[in-house]
């Protein structure tokens, strides 16, 4: 009886730790084959998106020397809830910008679009 409780608690602990260790792995934005290209080809701010209830916040940091115009797009889950697209915000080199949006009810999907400054 005691062995099965230990086995069950160990199994639960391992099941909880495995997804956390995957999230902690650094994800490279540039594949090794692309890393050999010229530095001028590198473009695009790295964006982190957080959804809290019906509110969406995106933080985009541009590590590259070219300005990136970013825009937040929010699709709401309910058919009567209006989807929204934010106006473009220029993320200058080494700058972090914050974009926000919301739905009245649930959020269905969110993405950030990027384009070079014109």
Question: What is this structure, in a nutshell?
Answer:
This protein is of the alpha+beta class and 118 residues long. The protein is built from 2 helices and 7 strands, in the order ααβββββββ. This is Secreted protein.
Question: How is this structure best described in words?
Answer:
The protein is an alpha+beta fold. The chain is 23% helix and 40% strand. The strands form two sheets. Strands 3, 4, 5 and 7 form a four-stranded antiparallel β-sheet that branches. It has a three-stranded antiparallel β-sheet with strand order 1-2-6, with no helix packed on it. It is globular and about 40 Å long. The termini are far apart. About 10% of the residues have low confidence. This is Secreted protein. Keywords: Signal. It comes from Streptomyces muensis.
Q: What attributes does this structure have?
A:
three-stranded antiparallel sheet; 118 residues; 23% helix
Low-confidence stretches: 20-31
Helix content: 10-25%
The helix-and-strand class reads alpha+beta
Number of strands: 7
Shape: globular
Count of individual helical segments: 2
């Amino acid at each position: 009886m005691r062995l099965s409780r230990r086995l069950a608690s160990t199994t639960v602990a391992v099941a909880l730790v495995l997804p956390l260790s995957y999230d902690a792995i650094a994800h490279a934005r540039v594949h090794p084959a692309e890393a050999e290209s010229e530095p001028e080809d590198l473009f695009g701010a790295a964006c982190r998106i957080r959804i809290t209830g019906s509110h969406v916040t995106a933080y985009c940091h541009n590590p590259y020397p070219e300005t990136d115009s970013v825009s937040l797009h929010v699709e709401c889950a309910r058919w009567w809830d209006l989807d929204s697209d934010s106006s473009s915000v220029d993320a200058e080199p080494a700058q972090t910008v914050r974009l926000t949006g919301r739905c009245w009810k649930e959020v269905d999907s969110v993405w950030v679009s990027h384009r070079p400054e014109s």
